[in-house]
Amino acid sequence: QEQLVESGGGLVQAGGSLRLSCAASGRTFSSYVMAWFRQAPGKEREFVAAISWNDGSTYYTDSVKGRFTISRDNAKKMVYLQMNSLKSEDTAVYYCAAKPFFIATPAEKYNYWGPGTQVTVSS
Hints:
This protein is an all-beta fold. It has strands at residues 3-7, 10-13, 18-25, 32-39, 46-51, 58-60, 68-73, 78-83, 92-100, 112-113, 117-122.
């Protein structure tokens, strides 16, 4: 069973950058798809980015393409989300999530979740 803990959130001005980290514990991390989701107040949780477990393939929602980069270090059991050119609409609680096999975008497909980290972008 995987346990996930996010860190790196905070307050940043529009146009700035943040790097989120997700630490995983469990023996099967390297065989899981890892993803980032976010949830703004009053909105549903939405997919942000995902990375495959085997070949490093990545997938992003359109609104973050070219600004966000997801990466993973299987040896350290870490997943990262580098966020550049942040906008006020990126303000949300960001969650790390894991699932076996293939990349998917619906939140209900993911088995494991972290508690989340707050990202606030001031304009």
